[in-house]
Design brief:
The protein is α+β, with helices and mostly antiparallel strands and about 190 residues long. The protein is about 45% helix and about 35% strand. It is built from 5 helices and 8 strands. The longest helix is centred in the C-terminal third of the chain and has 35 residues. The mean pLDDT is about 85.
Length: about 190
């Protein structure tokens, strides 16, 4: 029994004959297939977004929770390999663990304060690591973003106390300068 199969825009069709994945990949459009022996699996090749939340320990053992976003797409020419080797749950089995491991291993190289002050460097290191790892699985990464960092309440409190202490020290220094200036003016 022959039939037609429509491959939607921004997808490709992976062909399987009696369960065996074929080398041929169907581009978007209408295709004539033998329905009894042939199955066509659509694979989305548009840019996709995965968001994840990762908790990691910094070099100074502070808990850093990051919300991240990753843009990627699948190679049209290698969709059959992706289907055969990774399956259709690649986001859960390949991408999510890669994001988790890359963020955790990179954050561990920095103190919590550096994670904030060196954010562009941290982002770039995570991006490069994820990109390298996923390219091995024929997943092309186009962008990576750190949407948000958050820290433990203890760390936030310590930062606030440090800021208050710095402000108090600055105020005391200014008061001392003011007293010195008044004393010098009193001598005149």
């Amino acid at each position: 029994m022959d039939s037609y199969h429509l491959i939607q825009p921004e997808t490709v069709g992976v062909i399987s004959h009696f369960g065996a994945v074929q080398d041929e990949i169907l581009p978007e459009g209408l295709h004539f297939i033998t329905a009894v022996k042939t199955k066509v699996v659509p694979i989305d090749v548009r840019i996709q977004l995965v968001e994840d939340q990762v908790s990691a320990l910094s070099k100074d053992l502070q808990i850093v929770t990051s919300r991240v976003a990753l843009n990627f797409y699948l190679s049209k020419k290698k969709a059959n390999i992706i289907f055969q080797e990774l399956g259709l749950k690649y986001e859960k089995t390949i991408i999510a663990p890669t994001i988790q491991e890359s963020v955790k291993s990179t954050i561990a190289k920095f103190n919590a304060e550096e994670v904030i002050t060196l954010r562009p460097k941290v982002k770039q290191m995570i991006f490069e690591d994820i990109k390298t790892r996923l390219e091995k699985n024929i997943i092309i990464v186009t962008d990576f973003s750190i949407v948000d960092f958050s820290f433990s309440s203890e760390f936030n409190k310590a930062i606030e106390e440090k800021h208050i202490a710095e402000q108090s020290a600055l105020r005391a220094k200014n008061d001392l300068e003011h007293i010195k200036t008044e004393a010098e003016q009193g001598k005149d």
